[in-house]
Specification:
Layout (H helix, E strand, L loop, with lengths): L3 H7 L6 H11 L5 H10 L3 H15 L4 H8 L5 H14 L15 H14 L4 H11 L16
Helix pairs in contact: 1-2, 2-4, 3-4, 4-6, 5-6, 6-7
Length: 151
């Protein structure tokens, strides 16, 4: 069995990154988060970066907020920034909004606004799901995951 340090090193490899991330879900700790954050910035593949954001949130809980805010403000792939926003909403509901408020009217940010409203109890699960079904354009877009939000 590999150690956390070995698994974090494996995150850098295209061949082993997904397996390493899966194992870190079960055996990673908050102490591993700084090293995972360091690797995050080195990676180019946005799907594994988005997966690491979820892992960082799980391991660090509210301690991950500063890191997630830095990802939101970065020039990362838009889906990585989107996932960082979603994780911030899950953790504290703050710091995910863009500095340019005009962007909040975009379809991209509208899905996050609806998600936040759902978590606050302002809209029902059914309303969120129906809105997401109407607005989704292709499998995997930023509305699709909202068609069946977790309870």
């Amino acid at each position: 069995m590999q150690t956390s340090a070995e698994l974090i090193a494996d995150l850098r490899s295209d061949l082993t990154s997904w397996e390493a991330a899966e194992q870190l879900w079960t055996m990673g700790t908050a102490a591993d988060v700084p090293a995972i954050c360091e690797v995050f910035w080195e990676l180019k593949s946005w799907p594994i970066r988005a997966e690491l954001l979820d892992l960082i949130r799980k391991l660090a809980k509210s301690d991950a907020c500063d890191f997630l805010r830095s990802v939101v403000r970065s020039r990362s792939h838009y889906m990585v920034r989107y996932d960082a926003c979603r994780n911030l909403i899950d953790l504290e509901g703050d710091g995910w909004q863009p500095s340019d408020r005009r962007l909040l009217r975009s379809d991209f940010y509208q899905s996050l606004i609806y998600y936040e409203k759902f978590l606050r109890g302002e809209i029902s699960r059914e309303t969120l799901s129906e809105t997401a079904r109407q607005r989704t354009k292709w499998p995997g877009d930023h509305w699709r995951w909202l068609t069946e939000p977790a309870q």
